[in-house]
Amino acid sequence: MTSHHHETYDALLTACATAGLDATGADPIRLAENAIWRLPGGLVARIAKPGQRRQSARELHLARWLTTTGIPVVRPYPGLHSPVIADDRPVTFWEELPPHKNGTVLDVATLLKQLHALPLPDFPIGRLDPFVRISERIDAATTLPAPDRAWLHGLLAELQAAWTELPMGRPECVVHGDAWTGNVARPLNGDDAILLDLERCSQGPPEWDLVSTAIKLTTTGTITPAEYDEFCTSYGTDVLKWPGYATMRRTRELRMTTYAAQHAATHSEWRWEARHRVDCLRGRSGKSPWTWQGII
Fold first, then answer.
1. What rounded mean pLDDT belongs to the chain?
2. Per-residue pLDDT reduced to its tens digit, 199-214
3. Domains of the chain
4. Own/partner long-range contacts of 131-135 (Cβ < 8 Å, ≥24 apart)
């Protein structure tokens, strides 16, 4: 499938026409659950899944508020204040980032420390939902055997119950919701790292943001103990020592596994990885940390 035949391309053209923007030569940056397209003139279009208008509007509102706090975040296009709806998909427009690479775990720690220190804004930002879309992802994972899908649904129910009994942690605050190095951009010109992808930004326990880095040590083994110690020193706490860590770790592992499994249904090259992650969670691939390959 070429980029111009991707399912979101027509929505992109419609949204740009509605907004009075030029879509000539639009180039896909990332085509996943949200489709990201580069436009002429230093803009980027973000196309969400159908029915996500309220969430996209909240993301824009939060992004504008965060730009007033001094935290470096991706900036909405100032010419529009609401999502444009095209084919039932909300489309938002953002200023293109400067040339950059993924941030480091220390960048994540620095930005989270700033974010978590903010007072809650004076408008509703919603509550963190760590289980959003997981059930739908499991149902869409048609390349997994039915017993594995049933097991994943069972794990989902188990973890939903466990979340209601989480031990007391740090005070709730503004959380990013998906705080990993891929959602932090480090400009090549040496400027401060920039926080991206505010779709899951909401009110919730700060531990959820810290778990995304901790599992790089305990689950995937993609950072060293020394790197993790630097992360904890920079942020100021170690979530591994919190009694609720296991529940949050397993929830994040389930999210990562069902994300891979959902996309494996339409991308055969990812089927092995999806099965591998399920095998890991089901105890069929030895003890963690495991080797998980990136998806998309």
1. 94
2. 999 999 999 999 999 9
3. 19-96 (3.30.200.20), 105-281 (3.90.1200.10)
4. 131/156, 131/159, 131/160, 131/163, 131/251, 132/200, 134/254, 134/255, 134/258
